[in-house]
Amino acid sequence: MAIDGNASKYHKNLELSGDILQIAIPTAAFSATLALKDFDGSQEFFKGLIASGVTVYALKNMVNERRPNDGKRSFPSGHATMAFFGSGFIHKRYGWRYAIPAYAAACFVGYSRIKIREHWIQDVVCGAAIGLLYSYLLTTSYQDQSSYRFYPAMTSDSIALHCEKHF
Predict the structure, then answer these.
(1) pTM of the model
(2) In a designed cystine with 65, which of 57, 75, 88, 143 is the match (CB 3.0 to 4.6 A)?
(3) 150 by DSSP, 3-state: which?
């Protein structure tokens, strides 16, 4: 009986950890935009978050796949989508150094959803792909906005090096 009790406690702790992290990762991403007074980043974050959420909601209702625990609307995993959107946003906006712990936490969210039998592996992979897709499509690099950009400019009679500074 103690083994079943320990397994049940493990299951509940795993589920709770995944639930918390799927909210904590995007919250950390948005909090970074506030701490840095990165209001363009805040707007990009909400555009991606909304696009991710709408896509998951639509797919869940269109596909209506059964969960491993026999529940409804398994595909795709909303937990994985939100966790990987937050991680991808941090990566694209602020770089690898800050994204590595977020990606590790997002992988744990995906693992937890499979382990507690809320999702199939394809649900988690697709959810992660949706979150990453929107983070990469709708997020720009924070450093690109304050740095110089150089690129060649060519016309029929000249070649030049163009320098651009964004403020």
Answers:
(1) 0.81
(2) 75
(3) strand
